[in-house]
Amino acid sequence: MAGRHWEASLAEEHRPLLLPWAHSINEAHEDDAGPIQPKRQRLASIDLLRGVIIIIMAWDHCKDFLSNWNAHDGESHDSGPILGTHSEMWYGPLELYSGKPQYLFARYISHFCAPGFSYLMGTGMVLLASSRRRKAGWSSGRIMRYFLLRGIVLVILGFVVRAATAMLGLMHSARVEASLQRPVGAHAMFGFFQVMTCLGLQMMVCGLLIELLQTLERATGLDQVTLRVGSSPLLSCSPKSLVLFVLGCVCMASTMLTIHQAQHGDAAAHPSPPVAHSFLEIMNRVLFVPGPFFQPSAIMAYPLVPWLGVCLWGAAAGSEFTTAPRVAHQRALLNGIILLACFVLIRTLGGRHLNLRGYPMGEGHQYPWNAWWTVCKYPPELAYISITIGADLVLLFLLSTIQAKAQIPQIILKYGRSPLAFYLSHFFFISTFSIIIYYARGRHFGVPLPAVIPLYLFVVFLEYFIVKAYDQFKSSKGPDSLWRLL
């Protein structure tokens, strides 16, 4: 969720007009009265994709916390409908949604959110750093301090959201009345490391790496690396981008190897990993392996290393968006198609070596369709990253081709420019609806899944006014304002 990013319009060969029948939303609009001059412009496709992702994310949370659907496998330990014993974790029984494709789809569309946030945050950080150096004269040290402080803010806000919603009874238990009547322990409020906590940690590490590599580039004077096959150039990029990409691959490979070792060849045979107590065990939870630490209810759901890898891949792509956005969008399309093809190959031919969960691991033979598509999200396995980032990149290209001033894109842009305000506030709308529904239905939790749709749309509608107001407020502040940290 990096801040605003502004780009210089390029010469004709770099203008981001991607399709002959569509004016790109990233294309500069010049005054007809004079010659075209370079000007700063907002790279809107990234904001559009972030807006689409945040809207889809709200559906996932509404679905989980407002519906009484019974498609989850297994039974909840506290009789709630959302806390089944099956999951998308690297361990335990696999969630197959009772073989119902429609429920699998209702969950699957939100898989693209968390990887998209991490990837776009990496890209946005590079764009923001470039903008601050160019426009405000920030040094590398100042940029690193900014990302460090902003990362800390995200981590703190992640715990604040967790604590507030736990006390409201939304996330501590599906049984609203019981949650409201019993005290909520600190482990329930602060012991769940979720996506915002992980994003904050990613920002701190990635911000440091970006600026260290930028400093090395300037010191060596090397600004381009060309990979060749024989005498033919295969790929040309900045040294910083190449190093960030390789580090991202190392993060993903090390995570896959670590989880394979922890599974001992059979994920379902481990109903729950042991609670981590020692320093090394806890660091393993923080870095690689999701699971409980200190006590069973304190869960590390988003370990740093695999998600940092996604963020580093986004940062690796960021440099090209600052110099040649048209080429960057075309490369995003190509990379997206390649990743989607890799997903099919991994699920079809990868077997137990390249997969962590699902049909290739011998799971879900009673529901082969659902089992083939069901992947491990905690932590993100290679197949999960391939299909989600692949789809996000294809969508990023498509969004770069749409009309700049169309009404719907302008609305989505509002969401994409203030995603943190959306994230912080939407939980409170959902938790309020959850409590109202519980008592309105005679102390029965949730409504049928189709009935969640109008509630979800109402949440998105309410959020529009929040993100619009916050975007206007934030735009009135200078680059040094503390409000820019949000």
Describe the protein.
By secondary structure, the protein is mainly α. It has one domain. Helix content is 59%, strand content 6%. It is built from 17 helices and seven strands. The chain is globular and about 65 Å long. The N terminus is likely disordered. It comes from Monosiga brevicollis (Choanoflagellate). This is Heparan-alpha-glucosaminide N-acetyltransferase catalytic domain-containing protein. Keywords: Membrane, Transmembrane, Transmembrane helix.
Question: Summed up, what is this model?
Answer:
The chain has 486 residues and is mainly alpha-helical. The chain is built from 17 helices and seven strands. Strand 6 and strand 7 (295-300) form a beta hairpin.
| Shape call | globular
How many strands, what sense, and barrel or not for the largest sheet? 3 strands, mixed
Order of helices and strands: EEHHHHHHEHEEHHEEHHHHHHHH
Strand portion: 5-15%
The strand count comes to 7
> Structural class given helices, strands, pairing?
mainly alpha
Distance between the termini: 9 Å
- Across the major sheet, the strand order is 3-7-6
Number of H- or I-type helical stretches: 17
**How many domains is the backbone divided into?**
1
Helix content: 55-70%
- The radius of gyration computed from the alpha-carbon positions, rounded to a whole number of angstroms, is 23 Å
Seen as an oligomer or otherwise, the chain set is single chain
- Give start-end ranges of low-pLDDT stretches: 1-40, 74-84, 171-175
Mean pLDDT across all amino acids = 82
Keywords: Membrane, Transmembrane, Transmembrane helix
Transmembrane segments: 108-128, 148-170, 190-210, 242-262, 299-320, 332-350, 382-399, 420-439, 445-467
Protein name: Heparan-alpha-glucosaminide N-acetyltransferase catalytic domain-containing protein
